[in-house]
Amino acid sequence: MVGKTMANIEGDILTLDEVAVYLKAGKRTVYRLATNGQIPAFKLGGTWRFRRSELDRWIDDQTGQNRNQSPKADQAR
Q1: In the chain, how many domains are there?
Q2: How far, in Å, CA of 18 to CA of 24, rounded?
Q3: Whole-model pTM above 0.90?
C-alpha cells in the first residue's frame, strides 16, 4: 500500500467499540445492526469489523445525501 502511513491503514478498519464512538451509538445497537445486516460489517476471527469508507456511504444513504432529487422536486415539474 504505497503512500499510506500506518495510522491511515489502522483507521480504515474499525472495531465495534470504535464504530459505537464514531456513530455516537451504544455498542449493543451497533452489534444488533451488524448482526441483522443493517450496517456494512464483516467478521474477522469471530469479531465484527467495519470499513470506515463503507460506514460513511451508509451514513450518507441513511441521511439522504446520495439522493439526486426529493419527491417534491419531481412534483413541481
Answers
A1: 1
A2: 10
A3: no
